[in-house]
UniProtKB/TrEMBL annotation:
GO biological process, one term: carbohydrate metabolic process
Coiled coil: none
UniProt KW keywords: Glycosidase, Hydrolase
Statement: the UniProt record of this protein carries the keyword Cell membrane: no
Gene: bga4
Active site: E183 (proton donor), E259 (nucleophile)
Beta-galactosidase 1-like first all-beta domain residues: 395-503
Domain Glycoside hydrolase 35 catalytic: start-end pairs: 36-346
EC number, UniProt record: 3.2.1.23
Protein name: Beta-galactosidase
Source species: Streptomyces lavendulae subsp. lavendulae
Length: 617
């Protein structure tokens, strides 16, 4: 179908054309007198979040079966725009991005589907799901009725929403509801933007239930809800208070917890957040006792493969999210069924209107093993071997280099007078290793940071290897740039004449990995290393890297993710589909210090735990 064209209001804000009568039909999921109806019959939505983009496609069907065995009748998923359109104009719905296939598998499993297309999703996902090429555009104002932002959202929705609409229950598909934006009241109060999004969904074919989801406070509900559209809440505790607030405002609407936080995510350098099964089950029981419906966030968390993990900001420092998105969910990162699974199943199954499948066995795992590590090229020579430098008078940001994630190696040759002098980097996002004449002198991890150099009156070689540790996914700093956004000074004098080597690690091919690893043999403590894993029959496993510091691991030519010895996570989940029968190559890019071997272990280690329940005051 050809979506309706955008029109322009007198205020200069792009809006879709009005909804026509031909598009208005009775949705399969509706409500009356404070209760949900499905095909006109009383219904309770028992949902759980499972993100197709955090699960290998060959495991989608298995994870959906496990969610169904939890006693759920519905699955929900976000749709991350940046995952589908890494470069403007190249929109992909194939392979790992085959959303229609995921929807069909959910239908085959007997599950309804709630789609949450954003365009902003949070989800602890890089940049909250917004493409870096979009938020990095000068003057861009995301998540608002800024005309340029709406034009890009409209173009993205032209591709996405008809696919979702084709799989609606109205067309005998599984999609019964679509969310408008995501927790918008935690961010802004641009109701013109929210109305535009609602109309953009409708004019592109969405006929099923539309709803908003916000935290259960007056401030958040005021900013994010829309008259005439179901208002849902997101919370992790005190369901009676959330129900009371929603019903005081929307007495005729059903009580829906669009995200019940039965676990939580983790940042590097913190503890692993858990929530006891009994505590989570008690609050699920409280939601059900209020006659409510809910979605478990997460039912199955999955993994931030590659460089897709986002970051938060506490007002002082960046808080990068770890590679695992296990989230202490009832279905663990590798598909195992936890004690929380059975505690929640006991609460949910009696309310199911469909037969609840028997819980499947846990997936098989490889036997533990130790793999020797072979060192290859040193930093930064290995990195220069796989990049064509870009030259400019001033350091360029990741966005100016057309790069979303990974590393950039900045090099300049300033003349430093005799004596010790202070060098200051401003606008650093996020972390830089500083090399002077090939030797590591310091690591910087603050937006403005300084270090000393000793000059002789000659030029030095100054290298700054800058790592994007994940784009902010929540709050007013959403869309913040990466790289060196200010400049570099020796005392008060700016350093000019830079060359920059873009290093988009998650786009490296097997050939580039090989070239980096064989650029120059070295016994240096950081660089490229490899290990070989022979597998007779592929199965899941976990990688442990004892003695290693901070870096990245590839399995064959797929970037598995980051590791970092600050924890809490000390193992990386390696799913069976990434392994092949016979020899497999592990490639490690180590930024700090090498260990001597890689261990395969048969259980995850996500670090020391602390009980955590997110609440709203």
């Amino acid at each position: 179908m050809t979506p309706p064209a955008l029109t322009t209001e007198s205020a200069g804000t792009a809006r879709p054309a009005p909804v026509t009568d031909a598009l208005v039909t009775q949705p399969v999921l509706s409500w009356a007198d404070g209760a949900f109806l499905r095909h006109g019959q009383p219904h309770r939505v028992l949902s759980g979040s499972l993100h197709y983009f955090r699960v290998h496609p060959q495991q989608w069907a298995d994870r959906l079966r496990r969610v169904a065995a939890l006693g759920l009748n519905t699955v929900d998923t976000y749709v991350p725009w940046n995952f589908h359109e890494r470069r403007r104009g190249d929109i992909r719905f194939d392979g790992w991005r085959d959303l229609p296939r995921f929807l069909r598998l959910a239908e085959e499993t007997g599950l309804d589907v709630i789609v949450r297309p954003g365009p902003y999703i949070c989800a602890e996902w890089d940049n909250g799901g917004l493409p870096a090429w979009l938020t990095g555009r000068p003057g861009m104002r995301p998540r608002s009725s800024h005309r340029e932002f709406l034009d890009e959202v409209g173009r993205w929705f032209d591709a996405l929403i008809p696919l979702v609409a084709d799989h609606q229950a109205a067309h005998d598909g599984p999609v019964v509801a679509v969310q408008i934006e995501n927790e918008y009241g935690s961010y802004g109060d641009d109701h013109t933007y929210m109305r535009w999004l609602r109309d953009a969904l409708a004019t592109r074919g969405v006929r099923e239930l539309l709803f908003t989801a916000d935290g259960p406070t007056p401030l958040m509900l005021d900013g994010g809800t829309l008259p005439g559209e179901l208002a849902a809440a997101t919370f992790g505790s005190r369901p009676d208070q959330a129900a009371g607030l929603l019903r005081s405002r929307r007495a005729d609407e059903p009580f829906l917890c669009a995200e019940f936080w039965n676990g939580w995510f983790d940042h590097w350098g913190e503890k692993h957040h858990v929530r006891s099964p009994s505590n989570a089950a008690d609050d699920v029981d409280g939601i059900l006792a209020q006659g409510g419906s809910l979605s478990l966030y997460m039912a199955h968390g999955g993994t931030n493969f590659g460089l897709w993990a986002g970051a938060n900001h506490d007002g002082t420092a960046l808080q990068p999210t770890i590679t695992s998105y296990d989230s202490d969910a009832p279905v663990a990162e590798h598909g195992a069924l936890t004690s929380k699974f059975y505690a929640l199943r006991d609460k949910l199954a009696p309310h199911s209107t469909r037969p609840v499948p028997e819980p499947p066995d846990d997936p098989p795992l490889l036997e533990p093993a130790t793999l020797p590590v072979h060192r290859g090229s040193a930093l930064p020579a290995a990195l220069r071997s796989v990049s064509t430098p870009v030259h400019a008078a001033n350091p360029l940001s990741f966005e100016e280099l057309g790069q979303a994630s990974g590393l950039v190696l900045y090099t300049a040759h300033p003349v430093v007078p005799p004596g010790t002098h202070e060098v200051t980097v401003t606008g650093l996002h996020d972390r830089a290793q500083v090399f002077v004449d090939g030797s590591l002198v310091t690591v910087l991890d603050r937006p403005t940071a300084s270090f000393g150099v000793t000059g002789t009156g000659a030029a030095i070689q100054l290298d700054l290897l800058v790592e994007n540790q994940g784009r902010i996914n929540y709050g007013p700093l959403l869309g913040q740039g990466k790289g060196i956004l200010g400049g570099v000074r020796v005392e008060r004098r700016l350093v000019h004449g830079w060359s920059m080597c873009p290093l988009p690690l998650d786009e490296w091919t097997a050939e580039e990995l090989t070239r980096a690893g064989t650029a120059a043999e070295s016994a240096d403590s950081r660089g490229i290393a490899t290990a070989r894993l022979h597998v007779d029959e592929p199965a899941d496993t976990f990688l442990s890297l004892p003695g290693f510091g901070k870096g990245f691991v590839w399995v064959n030519d797929t970037l598995l993710g980051r590791y970092w010895d600050v924890g809490p996570q000390t193992t990386l989940y390696l799913p069976r589909p990434l392994l092949r029968t016979g020899d497999n190559l592990l490639t490690i890019l180590e930024l700090d210090r090498f260990g001597h071997h890689v261990d395969l272990v048969d259980a995850p280690d996500l670090g020391p735990c602390e009980e955590y329940i997110e609440t709203f005051d």
